[in-house]
């Protein structure tokens, strides 16, 4: 799904991921839903803050397999590739902990260049399999 590169767009992405996970059998209060929703919130906020190119939306894709849940957040800024900080930000810093949180919550995460458009995709996976409901191939772009 596409979202405007605004704080409102990031909030909507988070809410739609939580809703889709609920429909796939992971209720709002489940660990899987809370974890992937928080990861989505961090990645969407980063897309808005660091990956924003005026006039271009960011995209979120949610994929479920029999073994994992994966969220992908794509933006259109190629030159700002996220790296895990080598040290924690100072105690009074108001930002800089998002990817540390993603790294702590996800089983795996990474960054890949977009193939069909400019920009990058930041993705994260958790080992939370489906709970008996069969989703669509993924959350539409």
From TrEMBL:
Instruction: Answer whether the UniProt record assigns the keyword Metal-binding to this protein.
Output: no
Report domain Histidine kinase/HSP90-like ATPase positions. 3-123
What UniProt keywords apply to this chain's record, in alphabetical order?
ATP-binding, Kinase, Nucleotide-binding, Serine/threonine-protein kinase, Transferase
- Region annotated Disordered, chain positions: 74-95
Q: Which InterPro entries match?
A: Anti-sigma-factor_SerPK, HATPase_C_sf, HATPase_dom
Asked if the Swiss-Prot or TrEMBL record annotates the protein with the keyword Nuclease, the reply is no
Q: Name one GO molecular function term.
A: protein serine/threonine kinase activity
Q: What's the protein name? A: ATP-binding protein
Q: Which organism is it from?
A: Streptomyces coeruleorubidus
Lineage of the native species? Bacteria, Bacillati, Actinomycetota, Actinomycetes, Kitasatosporales
